[in-house]
Amino acid sequence: MRPADLRQARREGREGNLVLFAVDASGSMAARARMAAVKAAVLSLLLDAYQRRDKIGLVTFRGEAARLALPPTSSVDVAAARLADLPAGGRTPLADGLLLAHRTLLRERLRDPSRRPLLVVLTDGRHTAGPEPGPAAELLARAGVAAVVVDCETGRVRLGLAGVLAAWLGAPLLTLAELAAPGGGHAAPSGRRGARAGAGLDGAAAGAGLAATVRALRDAA
Asked: What is the pTM of this model?
């Protein structure tokens, strides 16, 4: 699937959106590239958040737990301060990240039922700490949460676990590398040789492509 294929007719009305990123912050160099891309995307999306009544939030998962690194906000200044230092490394508690995302979205839904949620998960699909992620993903799917999975898998041996997660969530699957390709997310579909991601990824380019894709999904009918 191409990010451009996600563009559909713009919805009418003044409902705001809640875009919640859930990002695998485990590992080291590759994790820093992911975090740079997400930080760029969050700040870009917040530039028009106030006018659109949108909120942006960020859940990270690493080590033995997940944390709400950026509670949903429409403030660029708040986000810049909270995202200035995002630790990376350690094991991968994927299920904890999905469960925290679910709790965060549920809490925000109670505060404002008219706000449309969108979950953006950046992961290679591996989990090395905590419970199996399947039940947590199915919990989000049953709640009707719209989602997209961005595959961050690196290396020659590919397990394809992000695709499994996308299937559980009923979500489209993209790769971080194709979002960083020239054209701002108009790269080849996932699975082709050009869709490799790694420590050498251009975080700013990936962030721009990620923000463009989120805007397309946010504006979809």
From this structure: 0.84
